[in-house]
User: What shape does this take?
Amino acid sequence: MVKKELEENPVLEDTPPVRSEEGTGGPEESSPEDAPKDVSLEEYKEDSTPYYKLYANNRGRDEDPKRDTLSVKEGITESLMEQLGFRELDDRQYHIAAFIVGSLDEDGYLRRTVSNVVDDLGLRAGIETDEEEVESLLRIIQQFEPAGVGARDLRECLLLQLQHRPQTEEVKRAVLLLEKYFHEFSNRHYEKIMARAGITPEQLKEAHSLILKLNPHPGGIIDDSYSDKAQQIIPDFYLNYNDGKFELELPRFKIPEPRVSRKYADMMRAGATTRAEKEALDFVKQKIESANLLIEALKQRQNTLLKTMQAIIDYQHDYFIDGDARHLRPMVLKDIADKTGFDISTISRVANSKYIETPFGVFSLKSFFSEGMENKDGEEISTKEIKEALRQCVEKEDKHNPLTDDELVEKLSTMGYKVARRTVAKYRDQLSIPTARLRKEI
Assistant: This one.
């Protein structure tokens, strides 16, 4: 919206203000006299427009932000095509193999059936082939680096990587587990595997350790930094804690800071002597009024953001000192709306789309909000505190005999948290913690 207004309103410009105290007096630096001056429509007796200060000198510490450059590295497709070029293939085989490479996803998997690839080759590339030929060329691609590329599922991906290794007894045993007992292995039915395969716990542990070292996403080994999915969070606030005081800053470089052009300000001061000049001044006056509204709106937005963030910091004062999630108080949108006087919908928009950089990380404002629950002493605590306690319980458990949800309820109860089993299961899912059976180690 700001960029559009800058394009459509000729009296606006976003040139940064001159800061003469930082200059050296060089030939490329403007003197203080060249700096734009404040413009007031009250200077003209025929006008009754209120005074506005149109020059906004409120830039933050990022007056000349440095832009990070992207280093573009080789992607998985380029790497495979380069390896394909070293194979002795005729033109037909090369084009079929290249089509297969182009059908792989970013993890290096061929998620489509061979029959679908055959159909697409005929429809999109005009190449008539069959499943046997595609399979043979796929096997060639599966010999490429990184190991595991071209697999059609996780099991085949892991087996391909094991085939690239020296065939020791440990590797052969791992291959056996994946070929014959993959379902039992995935579900951690270790007793069944040992009984059916006739191996000892130590042998199973060695094979298990080897398989865990394999890469389930071989395509990720090749770094394709120039990706549409690569995103960088630019904080909307900076928070520092020095000498017992919080210092909150709002960076300016994300949105242009419009101000009235000096040329049009001088035009207004010069006045009008002819009808044409009067019409021109009326046009300029209209555009300046529009500029005033925009500048005041931006100031109001800045005030809303700072006031909302300051209210959150005040409410969660203990948390922002050290970043300990156990110090987060239960907080809902209404709590901050009451402290700021803003509407709940305003607080919601700020919380859902803004980030703050703290000494202990970058966080979404939304992450500071949570419902409350009572502990055994009747004190209201944040659900985030309970989740943190649950996570610590799982980290400290015996991985050979992990805690069930019922046992986690009892554990949390001894820590003073009253939660039901279904609540523990819900929080466990939200924390991406698997069930006890899937957390079990050999």
